[in-house]
Amino acid sequence: MTYWMCDKCSFVIEMSKPPDPCPGCNNKCTFSDVTCYTPECGGIGSLDTRLVAQRAIKKEKPGKIVHFSDLVRGRNTEGKEKHIPAIQLLKGQGLQGKDQVEIQVGREIPHPNTPEHYIAWIQAFGVKKDGQIIDLGREVFAPGVGKPIYVFNIDASEIRHIFSFSYCNIHGVWEQHLEL
Ligand SMILES: [Fe+2]
To answer: Where among 20, 36, 70 does a domain terminate?
Structure first.
């Protein structure tokens, strides 16, 4: 399968042929092939997020304000979940009856774990019922060692949302959200 990126709105989709019309902007658009064809970009046949970023940056006008959130990737840019941090809440299964949160990258398809290509960290934030954002910490992983899983305890009755971010040293920052 091939990954296609709309030259107009930057929508990315995995299909055998470019879609018509574009599902992102609903126009008749031209598409660029953003599939990875070399081992260096993270696996032949996967999405080459470096090409995606290069194309997005080329289209930027000088002086335009760029938000970091525009560069964070989620489910819409990855067909199979190799980078997205999957969040699971295990009620009452933590220490002293607390709720346990497990965040794992590569639950469906393991992410590579070599000195050249690895998940460097997983970070989590909570949003309380009154809207306050709280830092739920991070786990840092050494290249080529262990599995990228971050486990911690919370009192889930206080929290409405959990956001998690993971960082791949080649493919950038990925996000996931869980509403409790
Ligand atoms: Fe990666």
So the answer is: 70
The boundaries of the domain holding residue 29 are 2-70
Cα–ligand 1 centroid distance for 110 (angstroms): 10
What is the count of structural domains for the chain?
A: 2
Q: How far is CA 115 from CA 32, 48, 81, 120, in A?
A: 30, 19, 21, 10
Q: In 10 A of CB 180, how many CB atoms?
A: 18
- Residues 152 and 137: their CA atoms lie apart, in Å, by 9
Q: How sure is the predictor about 79, in pLDDT bands with cuts at 50, 70 and 90?
A: low
> What tens digit of pLDDT does each residue of 24-60 get?
888 899 998 888 887 666 667 777 877 877 787 777 7
State in Å: Cα 58 to ligand 1 middle: 22
Residue 169 domain flag: yes
Ligand 1 center–CA 172 separation, angstroms: 7
Ligand 1 centre distance from Cα of residue 64 (Å): 28
For ion ligand 1, residues whose CB falls within 5 Å: 42, 168, 170-171
Residues 65 and 89 in one domain: no
Rounded to two decimals, what is the model's pTM? 0.73
